[in-house]
Please model this.
Amino acid sequence: MTRVPNYRTAAAYATVALLTAGLLGGCDSTGAPQRATSSSKNSEAGGKANPQAQRVLSTRLLEAALPDQHSVPVDLQARDRPRARGNGDTVHCVDEGWPDEWCGEALSVGSSAFAAMADQEVVFRYISFPDSTTAARFFIGEGSPDEVGEDPPGDEIDAFDIDASSDVPPILPGKGINVRQGNVIAKIEYRFDSTADIPSDRLQTLAAMVVQRIQQAQAGKPPTASAR
Model:
């Protein structure tokens, strides 16, 4: 599997390190994913990427790769079951919060959501493209080159802060991660109350689980990876 070089895995583990230090560290990202570097794109174009990572997931396989009740930590309970849709009608893609430009080239979108009491909520969103080159072109973000990490999950990864909303009642703030694995981009949004008792490595563990499930589906295997 192609990895982004260490200077671009920045958006991964120093930022994720902030997340794992109690999920409290801040970053300046607004939540948009991080662009692939020329070296990471070239390595894929040069045929160094795992061929299985190039497998296009059908809507059914994309849905199977979404986290379900058996793959998330036991304290999280299903709020919305895993569901994927083909992108014949882009309204579903737009409704999931993906940019219009992405929806114009996406094949399928899907999501699942979980909650713990009233103080935690996590939403997983997937979007798949015809090939990894298209997915890498859309993976745009604001990672800092000096944030160096060690072997993060996925081909590209970026972490971001989630602000509280002004809705009534307000939507909780939190942390998030965007990660690309081959032709699939996943967004993980974890909102939580400041008093919530959350393991320090929760978001990192969820990101690793998401990448593993996508990899398994791309390899033609049943997605069984779990964060339990």
